[in-house]
Amino acid sequence: MAFIAKKHESDECRKAASEQDRRMTEESSMIDLGSDAFFMSQALRQAARAYEAEEVPVGAVIVRDGQILARAFNQVELLRDATAHAEMLAMTQAFAALGDWRLNECDLYVTKEPCPMCAGAIVHARLRRVIFGCPDSKAGAAGGLLNLLQHPSLNHRCEITSGILADESLMLLRDFFRHRRESNAANRKLNPAAE
Hints:
The chain is of the alpha/beta class. Helix content is about 50%, strand content about 15%.
């Protein structure tokens, strides 16, 4: 039963991504393919991959001169690595693509406001701009809980743009956690001794 619900939600996720792609194609004459919305839609595609892998659905892309250098999604469970957030993995790819740890001519698009760990790495990598979808008032480090990206005592400050495709980003996160709660409740009913 849980598998069927997961497959149904995964199908819904794919349908939503396909619908978004269709809308983007229909509107391509009106949409600048170098726009924040376009690049955030690419980050959302990565977040959908995380959802399908049963990871917290956060996706990221890094862009330089209108070209995507790196794409990543959360892989904490897959890699068994607490630092395998989408932002961290995308930065690692971008470092390799550029052959440098400085990303000062690059912009990061991420579906959820970065956490303190990611924000610290973003500042050290000197990303020019961080564009995120939905805010995180509990743990966000780009203005939600605190703002490390523009902290006056640090040697670098990023420009921040928030709210790009925020509703789509938030919907994916809410669906994921709702499904997780339902799955956990079903498992507790099937195996009450496991508690």
